């Protein structure tokens, strides 16, 4: 999206005709995405706001929105244009872009909201779509049936059915014009799912979530979260999702984190008429202000008192600009949060802005997350508000699959530190995903032997405890060493793996006493529940002495001397064990396969003592550690070896099969693009290493997935796999 400026901008370049309607994901953080929607009037960057323009009352001119604010798309009401003769004739003769004096993309509503407000509309289902097509809109909207929260279930069911039945005729009337397929269903999760499945089966370009205005007006944000969780997993992933009538910046982070791409609202102007001002944390009244809650360009040279002295029209326009600027700034911050992998953190912070929003966030991250099978969490740390927010109704388990849809899209290991946010930290989707994958993929080498748990200090643990671990293992080969991080127990092999390795939080986070009951539950998740354990406090004056004391308590041998014969071999074995464990987690390998793959590996070390390259017993470079997050990357040789093992589909690296026409390009090192994929492993997810195959199953390349399996098969534009190595000989 363009930056704000004081002079005219060039008109947008139209998208290629065959690209119109396609949606490309440029960056993602779980289900949140920064995207690019191709339209006949340029590419629209998402998430974004479509300001509502009343063609009869323009508080801020559309041209100013394009030139000054860089707004790439707006929305107006086709029913209002259709109903007014002068507007209708101008739009039919010269087009809606000329009518509004706006060069960017234009979406139009159909009159459904007018039917909600005023009771009925006078236009037919096909008639209003045909009209939108004829006036040259970029994205039209079919005439759906609005569902209100106060409607009976039967009424909502009938509305959902009627809306779905209108889809085929509406699409036919639209022709080549992009068309919105709204999702209705009121507050009934099953009807929302039914609507999403039914509308998703038709060839719409965008799916608005409809019927949410009265929910937001009543500040029923928990219901809004339920509507999102019910609808989103059922919608085709290649289509952007539009929150009809939602434009308060306070709501953006949570909704974007759940997958929303487009927003629209007239709130920027409507609130200004009442001297109300939008902020990222709520709404304020001009009369109450002595200072600006957010300093925006339009008020930078003014005080609230200056604005209060303006005449009504001048003040309304200025406050409309303020509201619009605040809204755009929050969306820009959300897009950056997606790029940074921190959109959920932003949603956490914003949830404290309003009690109803906090209620929604607590429900979202407690009840769906826990359901009938609690997620791994530090139950002893859960506070009263989270416990109180838990759903105890008979229907509590119905949200588990939707929550899984959110969690399984997380890219792990993540980049950068995990910022501590109290009890909210445990239920971040990225944390939940990391813990689930650890507990699902890792298993101990042996069925017996003691466990030593290191605690009391933040990482990097290898600097503080690495030599002691090596010497303790030299004396006790069956010893299992774990680290107690603030988000759970983690095997020593993953001591540098995000998000466990770097939790950024207060010092007391590491000083808490060990809760033995919780540790036992954590050990059970690691299949170590029957093993005796002892603890080592890394804050001890002598970590070595603390180690020896713990080993003696467990009836084990003390650490061997620093210069003991064979210590170098033990260090090598530890590195191999670490590589095996990470291969299980990162490459989806069973322990026996990972052990055979790593074998008697040797390691190329950096000057700082970190592993740079992993070579197998034949000297082939098979893996490279990712120092930024502790993960592993496949090399060309490693990919060839794993592919030659013919492991099948479940316990094997993810695969993507490309069409024959793409093979020469991908084999030469080009990225795998959406639209050229024949098949994808079910366990494909963002961030995992994957093998790229031709239609005959021949290895073509390897790389890092940028999408889920469903997205790989559905999307038609953008990068599906970032190829690290093309493996086909050049022609």
How would you sum up this structure, described in words?
The chain is an alpha/beta fold. It has four domains: 17-343, Alpha-Beta Barrel (TIM Barrel), CATH 3.20.20; 357-431, no CATH class; 442-564, no CATH class; 638-731, Roll (Archaeosine Trna-guanine Transglycosylase, Chain: A, domain 4). The chain is built from 29 helices and 29 strands. The relative contact order is 0.07. The model is unreliable at 371-383 (pLDDT under 50).
> CATH homologous superfamily of the largest domain?
Queuine tRNA-ribosyltransferase-like
* Chain-averaged pLDDT: 91
Q: Termini separation (Å)?
A: 41 Å
Q: In CATH, what is the class of the largest domain?
A: Alpha Beta
| Helix coverage percent | 25-40%
The number of distinct structural domains comes to 4
Remind me, CATH topology of the largest domain?
TIM Barrel
Structure summary, number of beta strands: 29
CATH architecture of the largest domain: Alpha-Beta Barrel
Strands of the biggest beta sheet: in what spatial order?
A: 6-5-4-11-10-9
The fraction of residues in strands falls at 15-25%
Sheet having the most strands = 6 strands, parallel
**Rounded radius of gyration (Å):** 29 Å
Number of helices: 29
Q: What is the overall shape?
A: globular
Class based on secondary structure composition and strand pairing? alpha/beta
Show unreliable segments: 371-383
């Amino acid at each position: 999206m363009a930056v704000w400026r004081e002079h005219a901008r060039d008109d947008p370049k139209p998208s290629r005709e065959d690209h119109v309607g396609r949606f490309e994901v440029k960056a993602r953080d779980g289900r949140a995405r920064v995207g690019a929607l191709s339209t006949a009037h340029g590419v629209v960057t998402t998430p974004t706001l479509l300001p509502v323009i009343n063609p009869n009352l323009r508080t801020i001119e559309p041209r100013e929105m394009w030139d000054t604010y860089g707004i790439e798309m707006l929305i107006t009401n086709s029913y209002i244009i259709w109903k007014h003769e002068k507007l209708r004739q101008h739009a039919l003769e010269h087009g809606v872009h000329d009518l509004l004096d706006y060069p960017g993309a234009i979406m139009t509503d159909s009159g459904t909201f007018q039917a909600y407000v005023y009771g009925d509309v006078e236009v037919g289902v096909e008639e209003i779509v045909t009209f939108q097509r004829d006036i040259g809109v970029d994205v039209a909207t079919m005439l759906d049936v609005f569902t209100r929260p106060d409607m009976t279930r039967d009424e909502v069911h009938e509305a959902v059915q009627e809306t779905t039945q209108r889809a085929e005729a509406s699409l036919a009337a639209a022709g080549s014009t992009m068309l919105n397929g709204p999702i209705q269903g009121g507050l009934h999760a099953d009807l929302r799912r039914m609507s999403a499945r039914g509308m998703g089966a038709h060839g719409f370009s965008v799916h608005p979530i409809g019927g949410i205005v009265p929910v937001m007006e009543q500040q029923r944000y928990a219901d809004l979260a339920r509507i999102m969780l019910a609808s989103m997993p059922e919608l085709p992933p290649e289509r952007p999702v539009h929150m009809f009538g939602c434009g308060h910046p306070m709501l953006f982070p949570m909704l974007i984190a759940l997958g929303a791409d487009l927003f629209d609202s007239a709130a920027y102007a409507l609130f200004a008429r009442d001297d109300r001002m939008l902020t990222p944390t709520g709404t304020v009244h001009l009369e109450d202000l002595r200072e600006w809650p957010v300093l925006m360009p339009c008020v930078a040279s003014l005080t609230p008192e200056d604005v209060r002295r303006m005449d009504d029209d001048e003040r309304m326009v200025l406050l409309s600009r303020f509201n619009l600027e605040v809204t755009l700034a929050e969306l820009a911050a959300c897009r950056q949060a997606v790029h940074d992998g921190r959109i959920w953190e932003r949603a956490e912070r914003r949830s404290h802005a309003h009690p109803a929003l906090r209620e929604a966030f607590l429900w979202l991250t407690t009840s769906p997350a826990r359901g009938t099978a609690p997620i791994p969490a530090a139950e002893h740390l859960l506070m009263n508000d989270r416990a109180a927010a838990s759903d105890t109704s008979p229907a509590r388990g119905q949200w588990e699959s939707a929550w899984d849809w959110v969690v399984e899209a997380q890219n792990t290991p993540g980049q950068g530190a995990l910022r501590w946010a109290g009890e909210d930290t445990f239920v971040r989707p990225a944390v939940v995903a990391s813990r689930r994958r650890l507990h699902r993929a890792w298993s101990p080498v042996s069925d017996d032997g003691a466990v030593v748990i290191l605690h009391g200090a933040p990482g990097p643990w290898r600097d503080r405890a690495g030599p002691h671990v090596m010497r303790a293992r030299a004396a006790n080969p069956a010893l299992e060493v774990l680290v107690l991080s603030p988000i759970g127990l983690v095997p020593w092999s993953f001591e540098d793996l995000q998000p466990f390795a770097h939790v950024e939080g207060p010092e007391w986070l590491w000083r808490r006493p060990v809760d033995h009951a919780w540790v036992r539950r954590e050990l059970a998740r690691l299949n170590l529940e029957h093993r005796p354990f002892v603890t080592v406090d890394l804050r001890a004056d002598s970590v070595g002495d603390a180690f020896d004391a713990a080993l003696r308590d467990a009836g084990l041998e003390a650490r061997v001397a620093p210069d003991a014969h064979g210590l170098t071999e033990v260090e090598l074995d530890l590195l191999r064990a670490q590589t095996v464990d990470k291969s299980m987690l990162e490459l989806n390998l069973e322990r026996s396969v990972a052990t055979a793959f790593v074998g008697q590996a040797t390691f190329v070390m950096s000057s700082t003592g970190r592993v740079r390259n992993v070579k197998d017993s034949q000297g082939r470079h098979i893996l490279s550690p990712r120092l930024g997050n502790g993960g592993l990357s496949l090399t060309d040789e490693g990919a060839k070896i794993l592919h030659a093992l013919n492991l099948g589909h479940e316990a094997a690296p993810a695969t993507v099969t490309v069409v024959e026409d793409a093979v020469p390009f991908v084999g030469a090192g080009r990225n795998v693009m959406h639209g050229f994929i024949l098949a994808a492993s079910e366990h494909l997810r963002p961030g995992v290493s994957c093998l790229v195959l031709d239609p005959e199953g021949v290895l073509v390349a390897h790389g890092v997935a940028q999408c889920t399996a469903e997205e790989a098969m559905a999307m038609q534009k953008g990068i599906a796999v970032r190829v690290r190595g093309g493996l086909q000989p050049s022609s």
